């Protein structure tokens, strides 16, 4: 007799009922085991193993060859949701095919990154879409919809947004705290997540390593208080790698891992990414927390239920009904002609023309010199897949103009290193095919990988090997053999020419030349150890005492080669930028907006030899460059497998550039806020608030044609702001335009953005053609977070609607009158004041009120700080003020601009930072006044109350 099919296997039942049934069949030990990233199989129920997490930021990553699309910031620069949705769809199709071939490939994809690009020195700038929450959420929504698929029940992949919350620095990223006041939290950092989640194609989020207001993000009360209120779907929260252990080991937030694990689980973390594939440590911590009464089985059930909800949506239990199951036909979805064409289209649309005095596009008979450290490179980043195809700018220009019209100079310094005994560093020959000899079709040869120990180490001889030396800035350099092999250090400590590119979590291909005695120490950055010449080969030394002192002889300066190539060309294209694994990447922020000195020297040499010099920046982030001295400047993020072809087609005019900057390009480091200053309002940050003159503004991008804007109509009706206008291609080239609509509150009662993106649209127009562009925006888009009442409010008054081609290139404007909700004073007599709800502050930072929820305010670095609360309504009068404080110090109060009339201090510092006491003192007030609070010492202020 056949056993009945259990309800969880019945595809006709709702997923929720099936999850209920499966939960009832799992033991506590089985459910506990599910809490680790690598959930084991439950063989007795026929349930397969499952893991959360598959990187898919701009293609399937870390799992071998796959289509590689432009970096996320490049996709953001397209301002094209339809394109980005198609990219997401292609990535998810390839993930499905790759999983069918290799079960290690996951369908719970950790992508996209929606952290806002608040600060351009952030090392992970390449991973985000924009500094603007509206544009970020629009692009992220498009990508998640592509990743999810369009079936009403089943998902092709399950996207998880990264990184919750207010994460925009790598410096001390697991111990630094982002001080985020309520307006910034609601109007800026939460917004990109919220609008993407509300669109309905998000399976979950990953908390960030940092703390927010003194509390680790893996304990964020906003996971329950905000995130899970935005959708009726079960959202899966996956920890970042190692972050659960950080709660004890680096953050010291808890004394024991059992406490930390229990707190994270109760806060809403469902899957613990810790200790790699070994789940035993996490499982033991959960069991310990259960035994100590820190967790209940219901806590475990809540997390497991959310995991299972995602697994059911992915069709795991319904192979015969899964519309995305891989078949012989869908196998063709991997590296298809359509995906290759899409990779090129995305790379073309990501190119931003920043300046053009008429030198572009290049005429067909132009003699082009392409020079620079990235001229013959197709760089990958930490979240790239392995290239199936690649094209460099040099290859693209060869293909477009012919090799006879294109000259090349990389611009590396060619050097030899001499030992103290007069011999020279020598690279033994290799049987491997030289990097330059490899074709661009088919999967690239993976033979040259860092970490190889089968190749011979470097030695010394009487003549030596000429090495290509590149200084990437900050004194960090790479050394490359003539056949293209990079010097690298393997685990055995020997130096070999064994890598085709710098890369890896710890980059083993970078060095420093440090002046020492009459020469230099060559220090390997990966180990921090200097290089020595030993009898068995060149290797890293145990300490400086054994280090070799090298003499450095420059055989040719890079700028000399660049100048020769530039002098013989009609136009020079200098390709400059970054290597995504060096000086600005995950774990490492940049220190300056300037190009590395080596590349600035090459640019100066090219410009001196030939004034017709075009700068093509290929980079993961903005630079501050001397654009006024150049006739043309372009920027593109690292564009994936089609990067070179795309750039060449734009330079040649086959494609008119229409990318737009997704973040402000500042003119100098002095324009930047502090890296850890997350107060975009008070710090006047991003295009929303920046009051200086940018090098290039948010939304900027030029074209090879011109566009006219006319006939603006704007009205407010039924809670909707309707805007329409006509755009005409007034030039002679077919091209895309990106029309942008901004708003500005004309008479705000609180600091509001100088202008704020409401809507945008990218569209194509033939020469002479026109189109009517219409936007409908809900009136709620004009709201701000009213800290006086803890809610959104649309303020009445005039609002300027600005239409144009960038945030600064406004072509049309109209002013509309909004009947909003008038301001009301704070009802402080009835409700008191939450300390964090200040209007203005100086010298303070936000911290955690308790380890579970709430914010408090403290003086920065234990000094002195002030808070201002405007329009406090004391009603018919109060005579006493009560403050809830912890720690030690003094609270002072004053009305309006008057003297400090109240000073309250604990008799002694409280036992701990969360041990609050109530202090009471005199404060006489009646009616509406501004209230000033001054804090001194290490005191935390949580609440202010009034009576009398």
TrEMBL record:
GO BP, one annotated term: xylan catabolic process
Pfam families the record matches: CBM_6, Fn3-like, Glyco_hydro_3, Glyco_hydro_3_C
Keywords carried by this UniProt record: Hydrolase, Signal
PROSITE patterns: CBM6
Domain CBM6: 831-947
Gene3D superfamilies: 2.60.120.380, Galactose-binding domain-like (2.60.120.260), Glycoside hydrolase family 3 C-terminal domain (3.40.50.1700), Glycoside hydrolase, family 3, N-terminal domain (3.20.20.300), Immunoglobulins (2.60.40.10)
SUPFAM superfamilies referenced in this protein's UniProt entry, alphabetically: (Trans)glycosidases (SSF51445), Actin-crosslinking proteins (SSF50405), Beta-D-glucan exohydrolase, C-terminal domain (SSF52279), Galactose-binding domain-like (SSF49785)
Function noted in UniProt: Catalyzes the hydrolysis of a non-reducing terminal alpha-L-arabinopyranosidic linkage in ginsenoside Rb2 (alpha-L-arabinopyranosyl-(1->6)-alpha-D-glucopyranosyl) to release alpha-D-glucopyranosyl (Rd). It is not able to hydrolyze alpha-L-arabinofuranosyl-(1->6)-alpha-D-glucopyranosyl (Rc).
Family the UniProt entry places it in: Belongs to the glycosyl hydrolase 3 family.
Protein name (Swiss-Prot/TrEMBL): Exo-alpha-(1->6)-L-arabinopyranosidase
Species of the source: Streptomyces coelicoflavus
Species classification: Bacteria, Bacillati, Actinomycetota, Actinomycetes, Kitasatosporales
């Amino acid at each position: 007799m056949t056993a009945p099919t259990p309800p969880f296997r019945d595809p006709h039942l709702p997923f929720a009922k099936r999850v209920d049934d499966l939960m009832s069949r799992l033991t506590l030990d089985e459910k506990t085991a599910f809490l680790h990233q690598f959930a084991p199989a439950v063989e007795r129920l026929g349930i397969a193993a499952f893991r959360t997490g598959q990187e898919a930021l701009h293609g399937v990553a870390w799992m071998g060859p796959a289509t590689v699309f432009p970096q996320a910031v490049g996709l953001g620069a397209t301002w094209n949701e339809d394109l980005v949705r198609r990219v997401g769809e292609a990535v998810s199709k390839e993930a499905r095919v790759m999983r069918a071939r290799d079960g290690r490939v996951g369908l719970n994809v950790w992508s996209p990154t929606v952290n806002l690009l608040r600060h351009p020195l952030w090392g992970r700038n390449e991973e985000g879409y924009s500094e603007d929450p509206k544009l970020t959420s629009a692009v992220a929504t498009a990508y998640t919809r592509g990743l999810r698929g369009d079936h009403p029940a089943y998902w092709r992949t399950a996207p998880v947004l990264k990184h919750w919350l207010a994460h925009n620095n790598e410096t001390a990223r697991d111990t630094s705290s982002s001080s985020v006041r309520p307006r910034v939290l609601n109007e800026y950092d939460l917004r990109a997540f919220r609008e993407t989640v509300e669109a309905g194609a998000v399976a979950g989020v990953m908390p960030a390593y940092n703390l927010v207001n003194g509390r680790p993000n893996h304990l964020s009360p906003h996971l329950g208080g905000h995130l899970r209120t935005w959708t009726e779907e079960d959202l899966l929260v996956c920890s970042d790698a190692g972050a659960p252990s950080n709660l004890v080991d680096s953050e010291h937030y808890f004394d024991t891992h059992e406490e930390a694990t229990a707190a994270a689980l109760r806060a809403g973390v469902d899957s613990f990414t810790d200790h790699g594939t070994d789940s035993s440590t996490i499982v033991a911590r959960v069991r310990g927390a259960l035994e100590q009464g820190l967790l209940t089985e219901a806590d475990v059930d809540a997390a497991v239920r959310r995991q299972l909800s995602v697994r059911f949506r992915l069709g795991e239990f319904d192979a015969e009904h899964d519309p995305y199951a891989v078949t012989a036909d869908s196998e063709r979805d991997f590296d298809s002609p359509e995906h290759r064409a899409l990779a090129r289209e995305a790379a073309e649309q990501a190119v931003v023309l920043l300046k053009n005095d008429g030198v572009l596009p290049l005429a067909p008979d132009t003699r082009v010199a392409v020079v620079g450290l990235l001229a013959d490179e197709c760089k990958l980043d930490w979240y790239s897949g392995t290239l199936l195809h690649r094209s460099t700018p040099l290859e693209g220009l060869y293909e477009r103009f012919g090799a006879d019209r294109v000259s090349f100079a990389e611009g590396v310094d060619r050097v030899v290193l001499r030992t103290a005994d007069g011999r020279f560093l020598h690279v033994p020959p290799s049987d491997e095919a030289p990097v330059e000899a490899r074709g661009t079709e088919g999967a690239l040869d993976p033979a040259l990988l860092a970490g190889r120990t089968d190749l011979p180490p470097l030695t010394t001889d009487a003549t030596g090997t000429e090495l290509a030396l590149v200084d990437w800035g900050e004194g960090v350099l790479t050394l490359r053999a003539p056949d293209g092999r990079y010097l690298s250090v393997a685990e055995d400590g020997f130096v070999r020419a064994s890598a085709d590119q710098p890369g890896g979590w710890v980059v083993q291909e970078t060095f420093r030349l440090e002046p020492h005695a009459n020469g230099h120490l060559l220090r390997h950055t990966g180990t921090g150890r200097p290089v020595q010449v030993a009898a068995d080969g060149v290797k890293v030394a145990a300490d400086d005492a054994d280090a070799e002192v090298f003499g450095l002889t420059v055989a040719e300066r890079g700028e000399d080669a660049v100048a020769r190539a530039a002098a013989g060309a009609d136009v020079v294209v200098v390709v400059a930028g970054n290597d995504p694994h060096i000086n600005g990447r995950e774990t490492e922020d940049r220190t300056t907006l300037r190009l590395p000195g080596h590349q600035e020297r090459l640019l100066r040499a090219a410009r001196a030899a030939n004034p017709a010099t075009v700068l093509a920046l290929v980079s993961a982030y903005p630079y501050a460059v001397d654009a006024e001295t150049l006739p043309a400047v372009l920027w593109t993020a690292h564009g994936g497998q089609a990067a070179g072809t795309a750039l060449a087609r734009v330079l040649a005019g086959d494609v008119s550039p229409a990318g737009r900057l997704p973040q402000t390009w500042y003119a100098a480091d002095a324009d930047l806020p502090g890296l850890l200053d997350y107060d975009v309002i008070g710090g006047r940050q991003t295009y929303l608030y920046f009051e200086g003159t940018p090098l290039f503004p948010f939304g900027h991008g030029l074209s090879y044609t011109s566009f006219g804007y006319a006939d603006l109509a704007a009205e407010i009706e039924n809670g909707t702001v309707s805007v329409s206008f006509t755009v005409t291609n007034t030039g002679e080239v077919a091209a895309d335009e990106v029309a942008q609509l901004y708003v500005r509150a004309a008479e705000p009662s609180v600091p509001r953005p100088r202008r704020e993106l409401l809507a945008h649209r990218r569209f194509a127009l033939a020469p002479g053609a026109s189109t009517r562009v219409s936007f409908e925006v809900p009136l709620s888009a004009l709201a701000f977070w009213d800290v006086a009442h803890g809610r959104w409010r649309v303020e009445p008054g005039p609002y300027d609607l600005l239409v144009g081609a960038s945030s600064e290139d406004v072509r049309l404007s109209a002013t509309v009158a909004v009947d909003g909700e008038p301001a009301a004073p704070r009802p402080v007599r009835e409700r008191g004041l939450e300390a964090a709800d200040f209007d203005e502050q100086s010298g303070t930072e936000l911290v955690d009120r308790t380890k579970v929820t709430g914010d408090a305010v403290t003086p920065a670095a234990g000094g002195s700080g002030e808070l201002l609360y405007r329009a406090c309504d004391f009603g018919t009068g109060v005579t006493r003020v009560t403050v809830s404080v912890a720690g030690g110090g003094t609270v002072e109060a004053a009305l309006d601009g008057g003297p400090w009339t109240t000073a309250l201090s604990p008799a002694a510092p409280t036992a701990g930072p969360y041990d609050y006491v109530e202090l009471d003192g005199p404060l006489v007030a009646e009616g509406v006044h501004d209230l000033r609070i001054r804090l001194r010492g290490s005191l935390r202020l949580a609440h202010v109350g009034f009576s009398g």
